[in-house]
Write a structure and sequence with these properties.
Helices cover 41% and strands 26% of the residues. The protein has four helices and three strands. Strands 2-1-3 form a three-stranded antiparallel sheet, with helices on both faces. The N and C termini lie far apart (57 Å).
């Protein structure tokens, strides 16, 4: 069954990695599909998977933007989001930006 808007989710895979995805289905349905290997290239070799975090967005465009944002995050930043440690997110982003800044000559 499809729902209005879309949900973004992070799965914890059996190998300890994280998978970030987006669905317009019920989250439980999509997780079951991942665990069955249905439309699940990355997670099919890393089962079972468990839901670590999810958020629903009324607008599909907002969900797509959030999924892309999270996919670019470091593991530490994803783990802060999963813990609900929202205060840590800006600092983790700042550290990454410092590392990727221009190199001294």
């Amino acid at each position: 069954m499809r729902i209005e808007g879309a949900s973004v989710y992070i799965l914890r895979c059996a190998d300890g990695s994280y998978y970030t995805g987006l669905t317009r289905k019920e989250i439980e349905t999509r997780i079951s599909e991942h665990n069955a290997g249905i439309n699940a290239d990355y997670t099919s070799q890393r089962r079972p998977v468990k839901l670590a975090w999810s958020a629903h967005f009324e607008l599909l465009t907002d969900a797509i933007a959030m999924e892309r944002r999270i996919k670019g995050w470091t593991r530490a930043k994803k783990e802060a989001l999963i813990r609900g440690d929202y205060d840590a997110l800006p600092a983790l982003a700042a550290r990454r930006n410092k590392k990727s800044g221009p190199k001294p000559s």
